[in-house]
Amino acid sequence: MELPFEKETAAYFKEFEKYNRNLLQITRTLLNTEDVELARSPKDLVFQEDKLRLFRFRPKREQLCPVPVLISYALVNRETMMDLEEGRSLINNLLELGLDIYIIIWGSPARMDRFITLDDYIDIYLDDCVDYIRSERRLEKINLLGVCQGGTFTGIYTALHPEKIRNLVTMVAPFDFDTEDGLLNVWARHMDVDLMVDTLGNIPGDFMNLGFLMMKPFQLMMDKYIGLVESADDPEIVRSFLRMEKWIFDSPDQAGEAFRKFLNEMYKKNSLMKGELEINGRKVDLKRIDMPVFNIYAEQDHLVPPASSKPLGRLISSTDYTEKSFPVGHIGMYVSSRAQRELSPAIAGWLQERSAV
Amino acid sequence: MEAQAKPLDVFSQWMEFQKSFYDQWLNASSSMFKPWADATKAWQAGGAGSAGFDLFAKWSELVRGTIQKAADGTGGGIGPEVMFRILRSSNVFVLFNQFWLEILKDLPKLYQDKWDEAASRQVYERWVEHYKKVFEQIIGSPVSKTAEETMASWVNTLQMGQSVFGMMGAPWAKAGPQWQEQMARFLRGDWSALQEGRSLWREVYDETLGKVFRMPAFGLTKEHTEQLRRTYDAYLQFMNAVPGFYQFFYKTGMDALKEFFDHLKHFKAEEMTPERLKEVYKIWWTTNENALFELFKKHEFGKAMGEVLNHGLRFKKRLDGLTAEWCKSLSIPSREDYDDLAKSVHELRRKVRDQQKIIADLQKKS
Asked: If 0-12 CB within 10 Å is exposed, 13-18 middle and 19+ buried, where does residue B45 land?
């Protein structure tokens, strides 16, 4: 004879058993994992200046695009997200599609670097990398791909040096900061950035991380860990999780002066949109961007909302402007299966079409 | 015999007076702590009872009457005159005691009005009037002009002391009832009361302690004292800003919880399989997440967060300054030294880069 609730109790016990089995599996995987590696696509250091390093990826096949592309990632977090792991690597996909890729690694600013300015990053470091590639490859112009804050940098840079850029690709890049859609946009308005930089010098990476975690506290600080236990019977899933975790919490500090100008000029004054931003004493006029531009944004981006990315199209003078969105979030742009399938071919195809020598 | 019995009666009354005087003293002292006594009345067995000031007044009348009757009843001659003088000298003693009793009587009032300059001054002036009266009653002529000036000066001095006391204490005392009312509202679930209470605290603090912490110091330790005071000031302001930030989370959490329970109404206990429980968990965290997301988008939240952050930074900046001051005697470089060095290195890097570019261009041309 079955007692009342006997079936339900059995179901709970089974669930509890499964949960414990998964916990044990995670423990085994963790005990047998010393570290996980990110950004494993082979690359060579080709140029160095202060802490900046410029790498060139080794080709995976014959190059179908004769003009190399220089990737500029954000100063926040690291470019390793673009080459997270096999099967989830935008870089690898682009290499497979025959692109010749250079990437800037900005490095980790120490206390000694707190006076590096936004002008230095854009008009010195980025410019030196572009010049290096142009000189090495004997090309007048190269392709530029800017990601997130790096996309804003490449937009500014291209407006200052349009003669050096053949095509510009921006990915989840903010241009209009006067929007209510992004939490960063709302929060930044109430921060005394000058006080922050004067007090802290460099802005700690953990401070930035805390801000990002706060945007989705339950998901990022609780549910994702519970979710890991739910689906951890595969050690590769645990390792994949660890890679993502490593990327999230490996955040470099932000050079104080660069942070000050970026926050004050962009988030508080929206100077770039208004045509009032000055870099090394020169006004940045986005209308000077007259080469082909490909602007990619994420529809569910809570860090860089579409309202912040899309206005680029009406600020430039280019007659060849393409816009493409993906139904993913900010991070999903690099790691989601849909982005893996569609993003790389879209970028590679667009560049190849416009890079004939 | 009757005449002899009268002074004895006065003596026994005098004993009563001593007792009454002691009671009054106790009563005055307990009145000074009346606010506390009131607040803790519920725990007191019989309250703060007293014999009452009218007892002395009645007794005083009785003494006067007795003396008068004794004087009237003794007839003329040297004996009655001596008796009358003896009795009158005891009256002098009574007048002094009466004077001190009047002073004591005002002490609770002075305590009650300690933050109120005008009311306190009225008490001091009343004391002067009592003194003048007793002086005239005993000596037989009014106080001199010089004595009046001295007393005026004394009242002014007391008044000035009271002004300083009032400046610091009055705003806190005035705010007290408002805080009580705000606390009561907050406990009933009115979250705006917390914000009002904080704003009021800030207002009162800025008016009182804040001014003390920000005012210039003197002497050998001037610099250090000022740094220390300003660090306290920054810390207190930071601590005041923290609840303003967290209140948003409390309120949003409560609202989200209510919403979560509304969702739960559709679940039946007998259907609670592990899968259904997972659904409940998902509803719980997504409800909270969505509620927080809506909260984070609000400018009031951004403002409160900015306030906490900015106050925290100000406090840190002050503390860093203080630490640097304390570490001056050690042979280690300060943050400022590092920054100077970093700036110089940065400028040199830029100069070297520019010169290298110029050299490279020249080499290309040659």
From this structure: exposed
Residue A188: name the closest of A137, A262, A110, A274 by CA: A262
Structural element, H or E, at residue B209: helix B209-214
Distance between CA B65 and CA B6 in Å, rounded? Answer: 11
Distance (Å) from the alpha carbon of B266 to chain A's nearest alpha carbon: 19
Which of A112, A180, A207, A302 would best serve as a mutation to test chain B binding (most B beta carbons within 10 A)? A112
Q: What is the pLDDT of residues B163-172, one digit of tens each?
A: 777 788 888 8
The radius of gyration of chain A from alpha carbons, rounded to an integer in Å, stands at 22
| A148 part of the active site | yes
CB B96 within 8 A of CB B106: no
- The answer for B96, left when phi > 0, alpha when psi is -120 to 50, beta otherwise, is alpha
Q: Does the distance separating the beta carbons of A115 and B342 come in below 8 Å?
A: yes
- How many residues in total does chain A contain? 357
Confidence class for position B266, pLDDT limits 50, 70, 90: confident
Active-site residue (options: A99, A122, A144, A148): A148
Per domain, the residue ranges of chain A are 43-203+253-353
Q: Looking at chain B, which residue has its C-alpha nearest residue A230?
A: B278
Beta bridge partner(s), residue A83: A89
DSSP output for B139-177:
HSSPPPHHHHHHHHHHHHHHHHHHHHHHHHHHHHHHHHH
Per-residue pLDDT tens over the stretch A195-239: 999 999 999 999 999 999 998 999 999 999 988 887 777 778 888
pLDDT(B256) > 70: yes
Q: Whose structure tokens read 């490449």? A: A154
Angstroms from A246 CA to nearest CA on chain B: 24
pLDDT band at B5 (very low <50, low <70, confident <90, very high): very low
Q: What is the pLDDT of residue A172?
A: 96
Residue A3's Cβ-count burial label (10 Å; 0-12, 13-18, 19+) is exposed
Tens digit of pLDDT for each residue in B36-87?
A: 555 555 444 433 334 445 566 666 677 667 666 666 665 556 666 676 677 6
Binding-site residues on chain A for chain B (CB distance < 8 A)? 8, 11-12, 14-15, 49-50, 111-116, 120, 124, 180, 183, 186-187, 189-192, 195-196, 198-201, 214-219, 222-223, 226
For the domain covering A43-203+253-353, report its CATH number: 3.40.50.1820
pLDDT score for B60:
66
Look at A187 and B345 and tell me if their CB atoms are within 8 Å. Answer: no
* Placement of tokens 């006076």 in the chain: A115
Would the CA dihedral through A124, A129, A132, A134 be positive or negative? Answer: negative
Facing residue for B273 by CB, picked from A8, A114, A192 = A8
> In residues, how long is chain B?
366
State how far the alpha carbon of B284 is from the alpha carbons of B166, B217, B280, B303, in Å. Answer: 53, 55, 6, 28
DSSP state of A234: S
Between CA B284 and CA B265 the distance in angstroms is 13
Please give, rounded to a whole number of angstroms, the shortest distance from the CA of A221 to a CA of chain B. 11
Interchain CB contact of B357 with A (< 8 Å)? no
Query: Which residue has tokens 């207190």?
Result: B236
pLDDT tens for B172-198 read 888 999 999 999 998 887 888 888 898
Helix (H) or strand (E) holding A28: helix A6-31
Cβ A199–B313 below 8 Å, yes or no?
yes
Instruction: Check B342 against A50: CB less than 8 A apart.
Output: no
CB atoms within 10 A of CB B143: 16
Which range among A172-186, B32-46, B141-155 shows the weakest confidence by mean pLDDT? B32-46
Contact B310 A201 (CB under 8 A): no
What residues of chain B, 50 to 109, have a C-beta less than 8 Å from chain A? none
